[in-house]
């Protein structure tokens, strides 16, 4: 499993590309135009106390904290799909996981899927944050002595983890619940 992290995911949405995708999904032109107008030429400034910055006009991305932003991002990435029958891509807003079934040490489809994701991201103005992206191997074989190739994105090796917290759930390479339940118990004691 590759747990993907994007750098400023919501900020990188290109409104014209989003409206094209929305049109492809069959949304009415007037709704596509409304969304485009909503996302382009948005004034933004920062206020700290009584001090305010000068106003900047933004024409990319979705507004931070806007209830529509996760939905718009999900629609923007709807066409990021698996290309192999042995892989799937699971998405929840900007949380993405690439899962691949590796049998007989055949990692090729999994690694090709990751390369496909990397190319898709370049075409859609999304930047993969390799330092926060993690690879997790769940090996259900009896031997568990297989050696897997390291995952590389843009020439950088992705860190292999023995567990990862995804949407609040700790997933471990042995698929046990111990890490997750220990985390919950610790949190309950501290609260």
UniProtKB/TrEMBL annotation:
Ranges in coiled-coil conformation: none
Q: Where is the Reverse transcriptase domain?
A: 1-171
Which PROSITE patterns does UniProt cross-reference here? RT_POL (PS50878)
Q: Which SUPFAM superfamilies does this UniProt record tie to the protein? A: DNA/RNA polymerases
List the PANTHER family: REVERSE TRANSCRIPTASE DOMAIN-CONTAINING PROTEIN
Protein name, UniProt field: Reverse transcriptase domain-containing protein
């Amino acid at each position: 499993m590759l747990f993907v992290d994007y750098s400023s995911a919501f900020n990188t949405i290109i409104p014209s590309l989003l409206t094209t995708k929305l049109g492809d999904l069959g949304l009415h032109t007037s709704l596509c135009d409304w969304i485009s107008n909503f996302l382009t030429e948005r004034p933004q400034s920062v206020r700290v106390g009584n001090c305010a910055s000068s106003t900047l006009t933004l024409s990319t991305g979705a507004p931070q904290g806007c209830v529509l932003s996760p939905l718009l991002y999900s629609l923007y990435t709807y066409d990021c799909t698996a290309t192999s029958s042995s892989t799937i891509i699971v998405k929840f807003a900007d949380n993405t996981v690439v899962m691949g079934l590796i049998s007989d040490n055949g990692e090729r489809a999994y690694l090709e899927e990751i390369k496909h994701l990397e190319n898709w991201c370049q075409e859609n103005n999304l930047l993969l944050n390799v330092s926060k992206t993690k690879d997790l191997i769940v090996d259900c074989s009896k031997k568990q002595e297989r050696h897997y190739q390291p995952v590389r994105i843009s020439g950088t090796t992705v860190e292999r983890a023995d567990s990862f917290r995804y949407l609040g759930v700790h997933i471990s390479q042995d698929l046990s619940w111990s890490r997750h339940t220990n985390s919950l118990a610790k949190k309950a004691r501290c609260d």
